[in-house]
Amino acid sequence: MILPIVISSNYVFHHGDRMLSQPSVPLSTTPASTAPAPAPVAVRDWRRVYANRLALTDALVLIWVVFGTQLVWFDFDQETTDVGLSNRMYVAVNYTVISLVLIGAWMLTLRVFGTREARIVGNGNAEYKLIADASIRLFGLVAIVAFLFKLDLARGYFLLAFPLGILVLLLSRWMWRQWLSVQRARGNYSSRVLLVGSADSAEHIAGELGRSTDSGYHVVGACVPTGKVGGTLGSTTIPVSGTVDTVLQALEATGADTVIITSSDELTPVRVRQLSWSLEPGRQHLIVAPSLTDIGGPRIHTRPVAGLPLIHVETPRYEGRKRFSKRFFDILGSGAILLVASPILLIVALLVKFTSPGPVLYRQERVGLNGEPFNMLKFRSMRVNADAELAALLAQQGTSDRPLFKVQNDPRLTRVGATLRKFSLDEFPQLINVFRGDMSLVGPRPQREGEVALYDSAAKRRLIVQPGMTGLWQVSGRSALSWEDAIRLDLYYVENWSLMGDVVILWRTIRAVVAPGKEAH
């Protein structure tokens, strides 16, 4: 995931009382006759369209929740229903006004907190956190106002409306996010990006952005030092739209609304500042992508020092409170699953026992935390002595020199083995490994000693955390992923572990087990 420093063209482009709309030194020395033809008139800004749709659904959600809570609460409120008709009308009118004020204040708070800004919608958890934070702060403000002015408000009305409102708002935004994800996969509702920098860095950034269409960045062109208009960027199909000296012309030609600077050697600080001044405020945006990939947001902090946007990257630590919380979560989770799933485990054990000769459980030595070996447990899904055939089968399919590869159409599987593997039922005995501390519920998949021997220095970082029953790469493609993609996802997990991240991975694992898809085997 690319974590850029976003420099909005709305903020830093003033000098005294005059806005600097053009650089004092031209960014391009290319004659006008050789500049690319201007792009057609841009369509309506997708950011505003999407924000308006979110605002409409937010309003509908709040109207439904607040007025629904008012009707339900006062219908069941004994003190209100016991009074006369005129008093009930008085209460209804007054709380209707209160409900309208609450809805207006809630909508305003959501806007002030930037919950509909394009930079946070559709990707990551920032959108959800802002909604919850804005709503909780509004609830606190209402409580303070009621206390200071001694307002006699029904507590239950507010205690019901706020939690329900937050939940329905989050559900509404989640539904919009699913729709937005589909649209972005088609290239819609995304920032049109022009990459500027060296060819290697631009190709790398393009590849990273292409992995995640949900991020909302659609690369439409690149400006590289030696680029010629009409060529393509490296092995990609992205057109080269000019050089680093013709960025403004390339913006017009491609219709891009976002410039991402992928490396700084080609552009001096003065030229970057001039480029930022030349962008149209509110419509065109500048992003500087540092040479950091696969680093999670909580580890990154920006600190402006002497006009320099310095990025502080915290070193990942796995000790103290973090290690204790993960271990406690593993013990609690594995114990609960073993208890609840014991009938299923008994049925699977009987199926394994009576459909093929051999033991019910299969033990295999795997490499765990800090390279320490341990015996991993599984329900046996293959015939006895299947390990002796593995090397020949891997050599036959040409993957003996790469870790994390499985045998396709494995002939060693028993009658029920393929089904057990498809739905990951053979993995359940590893809950015992988790309970006694050999493994974790979530972590990089433990591998054999021979596979670990093929690790490079980067892949060895998988061993600094406890191996897991499931992990990020398993819920992102399972057996369909290449080794490079699998190790990239595992390293992202190692570098950015969090307890909430484990919960999300476990939820995605449950969905993958219930609906395994074609890639599961």
Assembly type of the chains comes to single chain
Query: Strand share of the residues?
Result: 5-15%
- Give the strand order of the largest sheet, numbering strands 1, 2, ... along the chain: 1-8-7-4-5-6
The total beta strand count reads 14
Helix/sheet category: alpha/beta
End-to-end gap = 28 Å
* Tally of helical runs: 15
Kindly state the percentage of residues in helix.
Answer: 40-55%
Q: Write down the domain tally.
A: 3
Shape: globular
Low-confidence stretches: 1-43, 76-86
Order of helices and strands: EEEHHHHHEHEEHEHEEEHEEHHHEHEHH
For the sheet with most strands, the description reads: 6 strands, mixed
Estimated radius of gyration? 29 Å
Mean pLDDT: 79
Organism: Plantibacter flavus
Subcellular location: Membrane
InterPro entries: Bact_transf, EPS_sugar_tfrase
Family: Belongs to the bacterial sugar transferase family.
Q: What is the element layout, followed by pairings?
A:
Layout: E1 5-7, E2 14-15, E3 18-19, H1 46-76, H2 78-82, H3 85-112, H4 126-148, H5 155-185, E4 191-196, H6 199-211, E5 217-223, E6 240-242, H7 247-254, E7 258-261, H8 269-278, E8 285-288, E9 300-305, E10 308-313, H9 321-355, E11 361-367, E12 373-379, H10 390-397, H11 417-422, H12 430-436, E13 440-442, H13 449-452, E14 468-470, H14 483-495, H15 499-514
Parallel strand pairs: 4-5, 4-7, 5-6, 7-8, 13-14
Antiparallel strand pairs: 1-8, 2-3, 9-10, 11-12
Helix pairs in contact: 1-3, 1-5, 3-4, 4-5, 9-12
Describe the structure.
The structure is a single chain. The chain is an alpha/beta fold and 521 residues long. It has three domains: 5-31 and 190-313, 3-Layer(aba) Sandwich (Rossmann fold), CATH 3.40.50; 47-185, no CATH class; 321-514, no CATH class. The protein has helices at residues 46-76, 78-82, 85-112, 126-148, 155-185, 199-211, 247-254, 269-278, 321-355, 390-397, 417-422, 430-436, 449-452, 483-495, 499-514, and strands at 5-7, 14-15, 18-19, 191-196, 217-223, 240-242, 258-261, 285-288, 300-305, 308-313, 361-367, 373-379, 440-442, 468-470. The strands form five sheets. A six-stranded mixed β-sheet has the order 1-8-7-4-5-6. Strand 4, helix 6 and strand 5 form a beta-alpha-beta unit. The longest helix has 35 residues, at 321-355. The radius of gyration is 29 Å and the shape is globular. Keywords: Membrane, Transferase, Transmembrane, Transmembrane helix. GO terms for molecular function: phosphotransferase activity, for other substituted phosphate groups. It comes from Plantibacter flavus.
